[in-house]
Each structure stands twice: as structure tokens, then as C-alpha cells.
Amino acid sequence: MPDTIRKVSYYYTTAPDKPGEGARLLQALRNAGVNLLAFHAFPSARKSQADFVPADAAAFEAAAKGAKIKLSKPKTAFVVEGDDRVGALASIMGRLGDAKINVTAVSAVCAGMSRYGAIFWVKPRDVAKAASAVGAM
Q: What does 85-123 look like in DSSP terms, one character per residue?
């Protein structure tokens, strides 16, 4: 089965870089019944940045507001899902390279049951070109 590549909206927030902050954010969303397609967090300028890719943007925004989580405006990323295999992500990255698109960041993981998933980001000016290069929905 071919990989599925979707253009998705993501949001970010910053939080203190200390134990329990990620759990606090995720628990607030869980308690509101928010489903995330992806979550990615990393240190940034003495804080932590947490990126959220919600399945339902409206529900996510309402839950974040209720939990007093200050969000960025929606931005664009790409989510990949497919059958796990050697070099699964190589052809996608190759198509982006061939199109002269620089990937800002990428994370991938084996999801078990012979499946894998990935998320990648490109500069806003390259979103339409990247979507075309990889056949994103």
C-alpha cells in the first residue's frame, strides 16, 4: 500500500523547560477529549516548544482556550503514514530534495504492526511546492 501524506495544521505553545510541563499540557487536552495526530516537543530559547497536530482543530482550539494554553496561529506540516520498510522515508525526502525544497525538521517512528509514521516541516513559502512534490492530500 502506498504512503499517505497529508498536509495538516499544527499549533505550538511554549512552556517552562521543567519536569511535568509536557504532562500538564497533554493531560489538559486528554481531559477535554482532544485527539492528537502528532505531538513534538523540544527545548527552545530556555523554554520548551510543544507542537500539536490535532485531529479536530476546532475542538483543540476550544480545549486549549479552556486550559489557558496560549497557542500560535495555525501553521502547516505534513504527516506521513505507511507500511514500514527499509528506507521508507528516503523516497519522500528525495522528492523534496529534487524539488529543491529544504526540510526544516523531520521525525519518524516505527508504529508497530509493520507501519510507520512521520511528520515533517518546510518553510511556509515552500508548502504548496512540497505538497505537489510528494503528492500530499
A: -TTTTHHHHHHHHHTT--EEEEEEEEEETTEEEEEEEE-
Distance separating alpha carbons of residues 100 and 133, to the nearest angstrom: 10
Domains and CATH numbers, the chain: 10-74 (3.30.70.260), 76-134 (3.30.70.260)
Q: At which residue does the C-alpha cell 527552545 appear?
A: 44
Residue 78, beta-bridge partner list: 7, 120
Residue 53 CA, distance from chain mean position = 5
So what's the pLDDT on residue 137?
Answer: 94
pTM of the model: 0.93
Identity of the residue numbered 59: A
pLDDT digits (tens, 9 = 90+) for 24-53: 999 999 999 999 999 999 999 999 999 999
